[in-house]
Amino acid sequence: MKDKQKLHEKSWFKPTIVIIVILLVIGLVKILVYKPFDDLFKKFKQNTVEAESYDMDSIITQTDPYLGSPKALVKIVEFGDFACPYCQLASSVMREVTLEYGDDIFYQFRDFTVVSPQSIWLAQAANCANEQNKFWPMHDQLFQKQGQITESNIYQIAQGMGIEINKFRSCLESERFKNEIYDDFLTGQNLGVQGTPTFFINGYKFDGVPEKENLKKLIDRMMFIEDNL
Prior knowledge:
By secondary structure, the protein is an alpha+beta fold. It has nine helices and five strands; from the N terminus they run ααββαβαααααββα. The protein has a single domain (about 1-225), classed as 3-Layer(aba) Sandwich (Glutaredoxin).
């Protein structure tokens, strides 16, 4: 009887430990990933945030893809990497936020290819899709299928979103966007970007994945400030 009780206790103990470890890891990830935006929103509420230190006009480009309106009061530029798991988390948040705010915000994506040897190739695929006005569908697919994209299936994925394959293949093979991707990287470096994702929002710099509700509160607060200048 005692042996059965011990066996039952052991069988219950192991999965419980695993669950506790998973919950601790999730909690740690949330703290590390979401904390920067949470802290900044608190500073805005307390009116203790320092003055903006980055010129958005020098960060925003005429060539990189964007959503929303260039005339919006709140401008957001992300430096990201399609091989970055944190950028994958950020992508779903940003797509939801841009859909909700529409032309009330401006959101631009720039490449900062540092995560893996495949990063530059993935960025080239996105830029080649952009030539055919398909950047955002490709952006979504690259993040949704992160780790599954290969040189053999990229054409099938591109075809599925209505991309003309011969032009897309020619663009990828020519590597003609390598210099543009490198320019994005150099700009990021000059701005002090050290990892992905990094966001610049109305002159403020943030590292990490934004928690959706905190980001929305931050956008609303910035809109209020800009409206009352």
